[in-house]
Design a protein that fits this description.
Helix content is 40%, strand content 20%. By secondary structure, the chain is α+β, with helices and mostly antiparallel strands. It has three domains: 211 residues, no CATH class; 112 residues, no CATH class; 61 residues, Arc Repressor Mutant, subunit A (Orthogonal Bundle), CATH 1.10.10. A nine-stranded mixed sheet has the order 2-6-7-10-1-11-12-13-14. The protein has a three-stranded antiparallel sheet with strand order 5-4-15, with no helix packed on it. A two-stranded antiparallel sheet has the order 3-16. Helix 1 crosses helix 4, helix 2 runs antiparallel to helix 3 and helix 12 crosses helix 14. The radius of gyration is 30 Å and the shape is elongated. The chain binds zinc ion. Zinc ion (ZN) binds next to loops.
Length: 480
């Protein structure tokens, strides 16, 4: 009997504001613990929160980018819970009147397009970060993150497989990054996702109990966690143990590669929501929405289409480039300063991406100047350096930020293009490899490749390959 997986996602995104949601503390990531706090975000008695209007603007922008309806009036609510990550013992969030409702985005899985509906986007404050020490009997807490502004994007349960859910998060992340709403760094926790999963028989109308999974910090973990949970539930149902699938929250333990029960899932009434008395209703007019709409830059879908039309890149190339915003921007800047679109794409997706991966700099700003890369490409084109040497120069450029010409001059890497000089190397190689010469004349044309390799070795890769091949062919003819 066939089973069907139902997935809905809740995504928390830290907004790219300079200060917190209700006070003027900075939001810089990685500051010393508890250095970015004040009486307001620590929830001390007698303080009052003031809503940062930049938060409202970014939330509207997110709503527009995700095709939502923007609600011209919405309100903040108090969500009560008692846990050390919240010094006030409540979180200021939005409950029944969120800032945006009813949106949608399109995803593509294995060539098939599908629309995923968004239920709502609401504004809320982040909680502190607890650090549970393995070797110590106590935990540590960092309140720097308390009061960092968040939006929570709640999808409808429209996804039918972990793959679709991952694609949804990827698409969403890309839109939010391009629109400048968040830096979406999953490894720093600025984009966090929770998945709600349930299983039912194909054809069944009502939904079975759903399980919420938390604590997945990368796409790799996200898919692994969802696949594991999907399998766990299917097995329980298949063996008639379906009653063991209960509404609960499970934490993904990446070390052990499994989900672990945390707590039975609370219902809304457990939080005793009520309107936040310290913050007035949020009102704005259409003009504000329209002015924000004008500021939304080109989003990934439109960018993909333009890259295809303008630069004639393959779908795969476009996907990798656009999936990494700094990389896509670097690509366009190099083309603008004169690089040939197809050639520079090969360098960026090949050598540059490899170096970025090794140095774990993916998603960061590119440490090479656009004009230096263009210069390097020119040096290859004019034959001043070989493609092989260019790779070496490129790596040095990446590490030292030096200009290609100065690297080449310093290390004497210019290509040998003088015929006389090349001839000397060629004759020497021919003399040292009589067997290969004989093989060549005996009809084994691959001996030519071996001889070319020897010449490159002797010149440390600096021989001009075109010219070398011409002279070598001529010399071999003469030896016959
Ligand atoms: Zn503060």
């Amino acid at each position: 009997m066939a089973w069907e997986t139902i997935i809905g996602m809740e995504i928390h995104v830290e907004l790219a504001t300079k200060s917190k949601i209700f006070c003027s503390c900075p939001t810089t990531f990685g500051a010393p613990p508890n250095s970015q706090t004040c009486p307001v975000c620590l929830g001390l008695p007698g303080t009052l929160p003031v809503l940062n209007d930049e938060v409202v603007k970014l939330a509207i922008k997110a709503g527009l980018a995700l095709n939502c309806d923007i609600n011209l009036s919405s309100k903040m609510d108090r969500k009560n819970y008692f846990y050390p990550d919240s010094p006030k013992a409540y979180q200021i969030s939005q409950y029944d009147l969120p800032i945006c409702s009813g949106g949608r985005i399109e995803i593509e899985v294995e060539g098939k397009k599908k629309e995923i509906r968004i239920n709502r986007i609401h504004i809320e404050e982040d909680a502190g970060k607890l650090i549970h020490m393995v070797e110590e009997p106590h935990s540590l807490i960092d309140y720097n993150r308390v009061g960092v502004p968040l939006i929570e994007i709640v999808s409808e349960a429209d996804m039918r497989s972990p793959q679709e859910a991952v694609e949804y998060v990827k698409t969403l992340k890309s839109i939010l990054e391009y629109a400048g709403i968040s830096d979406c760094r999953m490894e720093q926790g600025s984009l966090r996702c929770d998945a709600n999963i349930s299983i039912r028989r194909v054809g069944q109308e009502e939904l079975n109990s759903k399980v919420e999974i938390k604590n997945m910090n990368s796409f790799k973990e996200l898919i692994k966690a969802m696949e594991k949970e999907e399998k766990r539930q299917r097995e329980l149902y298949s063996f008639g143990e379906g009653h063991k699938v209960i509404q609960e929250t499970r934490r993904w333990d990446s070390g052990k590669g499994r989900t672990v029960s945390m707590r039975t899932k609370e219902d809304a009434h457990d939080y005793r929501y009520f309107p936040e008395p310290d913050i007035p209703t949020i009102h704005f007019n259409r003009n504000l929405v329209e002015s924000i709409e004008k500021m939304i830059p080109e989003l990934p879908e439109a960018k993909k289409k333009r890259f295809k039309d303008f630069y004639q890149l393959t779908d795969k190339e476009i996907e990798i480039l656009i999936g990494d915003k700094p990389l896509a921007e670097f690509y366009e800047r190099t083309v603008k300063v004169g690089a040939e679109p197809k050639i520079v794409a090969n360098w960026i997706l090949g050598d540059l991406l490899k170096l970025l991966k090794v140095e774990e700099l993916q998603g960061s700003e590119i440490p090479i100047k656009e004009k230096d890369l263009v210069e390097l490409l020119k040096l290859i084109e004019t034959g001043e350096i070989s493609g092989k040497i260019a790779k070496e120069v490129f790596e040095t450029m990446f590490k030292t930020r030096e200009e290609p010409k100065s690297i080449i001059a310093k290390r004497g890497l210019t290509q040998i293009s003088g015929e006389e000089q090349l001839e000397r190397y060629i004759l020497e190689v021919l003399e040292n490899n009589p067997q290969s010469v004989e093989d060549y004349h005996g009809g084994k044309k691959q001996a030519m490749g071996y001889l070319m390799g020897q010449i490159m070795k002797a010149t440390q890769g600096q021989a001009n390959p075109q010219l070398t091949k011409e002279i070598l062919t001529m010399k071999l003819q003469n030896l016959k």
